[in-house]
Amino acid sequence: MTRTKTERIASIEDKIAQLENQRKQLVQQQKADERKARTRRLIQRGAMLEGFIPDAETYTEDEIQAFLKETIGTDFARRALRKIQHAAAHNTAPQKVATKTDSTNKALANTATTQQAAPTLTGGDGRATGTG
């Protein structure tokens, strides 16, 4: 049995409506997935931030925002972010960004290591008997 052109047009229009509904559902699902991913990312990053700031829960949102603006706006922070981005683009581990205090801390650590006195042995009366 052959269908008329009108019946074929109606059938095609039904298929088009079904496909449009499928498309709408997929778009809605994609948006929902993106919202979930963003929410997860925000929660994870917020948790990281709280892990690095002592007593973070005691600060207001404005104080945290001011802190982030102040610290992320530094040359050091911008250099660190560039190094991280560069490492990610080249699939390598990011290198540590050198700071002015790194050399000071290294010098202090070396001084503390070299200045440790050798342990002194004591006799039963508490007097030194020699070096160990």
Explain this structure.
By secondary structure, this protein is mainly α. The chain folds into two domains: 1-58; 59-95, no CATH class. It is built from four helices and two strands, in the order ααααββ. Strands 1-2 form a two-stranded antiparallel ribbon. The longest helix has 48 residues, at 5-52. The termini are far apart. The model is unreliable at 111-123 and 126-132 (pLDDT under 50).
List the keywords.
132 residues, elongated, two-stranded antiparallel ribbon, 2 strands, 5% strand, single chain, 4 helices, 2 domains, mainly alpha
List the helices and strands and how they pair.
Layout: H1 5-52, H2 61-72, H3 75-89, H4 100-114, E1 120-122, E2 128-131
Antiparallel strand pairs: 1-2
Query: How would you state the average pLDDT, rounded?
Result: 81
Order of helices and strands: HHHHEE
- The helix/strand class is mainly alpha
Largest beta sheet: strand ordering? 1-2
- Report the β-strand fraction as a percent range: 5-15%
- How many structural domains? 2
What's the main sheet like? 2 strands, antiparallel
What is the CA-atom radius of gyration, in angstroms? 33 Å
In short:
With 132 residues, this protein is mostly helical. It has 4 helices and 2 strands; from the N terminus they run ααααββ.
